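Support request from a user on the community tier.

User writes: "When I paste my structure tokens into the form, the page sometimes reloads and wipes my input. The last time it worked, I copied everything first. Here is what I submitted, just in case something in the input itself triggers the reload:"
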């Protein structure tokens, strides 16, 4: 190789970092793989203004709902890996759907570059007041004395609500009858009407009914108590050590996105997540702010996927 070729290669190598150093040079898209108005959409809209300011470019929300969030997630996985298309991944798209559907159009571990976890919304175990249990231990005793007679509502087969209930049964040695609904709203209506006994719901959806006495909360499903209702104990405190089930969110990009682009977005996200305005906004819909390194987020996805895959396998859940 002559000196001219060496000089050319050196100049190309020197120029490479400056290509990404200018990032971002245009608007950045956050795909929300669900319709407007839900928890994931609200979370994305809560962080978008701060990201716009931190990055100096407009951050826009692109709702791409369908197939339980997997259509939008697959779209993001196959997008150009240039940092301009991201997706607000969540429990549903990154861990429970891959556990339920092994032939998805994306692999949550292989096909995404992670930035940081963003939020966690605890689920809460709620029962109709006619169920004579004041805590989780009493509920377990009742369920064991009535095997196959306690009814458990969910927002649909394979949802986080359903899988959290299956995890509870596995951890507690109980067996309940699963009653799937088309959404958490109808499930809550029947629970308040006494048609079903128990539901594992997002705290943000149930908090008003708990406060009004229409539902009784036994425990939250996260390892830490919720800042929104700190009087409710955790499952871990209630005799089920290590029990953890929640709806998490985090920003991911196509796997081949350059590392420096990923880290620039990560730095901006951490800045936004530490703003008081972000924390106050999250608190209004029952979410806790999370933050992590890209490596911690990747490890979290792998561990959560393994947990839900085990639940699906042991419960014999099969969805088409």
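"...and here is what came back when it finally went through:"
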């Amino acid at each position: 190789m002559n000196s001219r070729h060496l000089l050319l290669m050196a100049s190309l190598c020197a120029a490479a970092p400056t290509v990404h150093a200018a990032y971002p040079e245009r608007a950045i898209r956050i795909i929300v793989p669900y319709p407007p108005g839900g928890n994931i959409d609200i979370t994305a809209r809560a962080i978008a203004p701060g990201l716009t300011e931190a990055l100096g470019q407009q951050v826009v929300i692109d709702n791409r709902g369908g197939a339980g969030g997997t259509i939008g997630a697959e779209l993001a996985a196959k997008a150009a890996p240039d940092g301009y298309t991201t997706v607000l991944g969540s429990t549903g798209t990154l861990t429970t759907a891959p556990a339920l559907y092994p032939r998805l159009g994306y692999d949550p571990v292989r096909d995404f570059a992670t930035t940081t976890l963003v939020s966690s919304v605890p689920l809460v175990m709620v029962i109709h007041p006619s169920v004579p249990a004041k805590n989780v231990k009493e509920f377990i005793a009742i369920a064991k004395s009535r095997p196959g007679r306690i009814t458990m509502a969910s927002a649909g087969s394979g949802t986080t609500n359903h899988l959290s209930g299956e995890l509870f049964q596995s951890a507690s040695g109980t067996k309940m009858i699963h009653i799937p609904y088309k959404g958490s709203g109808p499930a809550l209506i029947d629970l308040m009407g006494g048609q079903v006994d128990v539901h594992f719901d997002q705290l943000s959806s149930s908090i008003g009914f708990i406060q009004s006495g229409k539902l009784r909360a036994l425990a939250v499903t996260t390892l830490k108590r919720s800042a929104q209702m700190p009087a409710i104990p955790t499952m871990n405190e209630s005799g089920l050590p290590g029990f953890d089930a929640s709806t998490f969110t985090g920003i991911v990009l196509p796997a081949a996105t350059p590392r420096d682009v990923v880290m620039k977005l990560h730095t901006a996200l951490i800045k936004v997540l530490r703003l008081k305005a972000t924390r106050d906004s999250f608190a209004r819909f029952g979410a806790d702010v999370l933050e992590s390194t890209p490596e911690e987020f990747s490890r979290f996805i792998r561990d959560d996927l393994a947990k839900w895959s085990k639940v699906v396998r042991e419960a014999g859940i099969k969805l088409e």
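Agent notes: The reload is a front-end session timeout and is unrelated to the input. The longest helix spans residues 294-315. The chain is about 45% helix and 20% strand. Escalated to web team.
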